[in-house]
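Now for one record:
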Amino acid sequence: MIRKNRLTKLLNLHLNPHSWHSYSTRGKLNPYLYLSFTLAVLQLSCSPALINLDIAKDEVAKYYESEQYEKEMNEIIIEAKEKFSNIEVHPNSAVVFDVDETVLDNYEAIKQIGFGYESKYWDEWIEKASAPANPQVKDLYDFLVKKGFKIIFITGKKDYQYNATFKNLNAAGYIDFDTLIVRGKKDYKTKSALFKSLKRKEMTEKGYIVVGCVGDQFTDCQGENCGIVVKLPNYLYLVE
């Protein structure tokens, strides 16, 4: 799993301004994302220095700890429910969910290390199996289970993290699901989009009809066999 920092993301926005709208399923310009872009451009245009890291961290914290994140998530989930309500449910209809920053919320753990990434710390955190459920996504999950959709979890976590991830899902209230898919050794170096696309294809070959895909990364739902794509906001990291 390759993570990119926030500055790289802001520069990508400069090159791809249409992606300013990418975190709202209703096509609204996200003010926090636009502010991030503006700050970065102003600082980079005045000097070759990068955007101040403390400013970026404070901005991310304000977004997640204000009503903005919750409001945006609520809007996305309401729209997702409307779309899934219009689908005829068959015995093999399935919705694929990512795990981290989708069904599970690691914000507090990531904040503890200054919004950085340290593999040893991350592995230890996973083994604790104590990440809470993302409440809005849990609500969508409950809605889909009640309607009769099969649930499939596909995560970039590795095979030796399967048990802890399974335990964490159960502890967070995700009890009813068909399968949890993690990376086997042969998948360790596979790009996330390709890995998840291949696993969705495998599920269809087993008889599932994938009617939806929910994730916080664009790579979670790229390629075929996605159905309705529900893209959640993540300002903490990018995965390639």
Remarks:
- The domain at 3-239 is CATH 3.40.50.1000 (Rossmann fold).
- The CA atoms of residues 87 and 211 lie 8 Å apart.
- Confidence is low (pLDDT under 50) at residues 10-27.
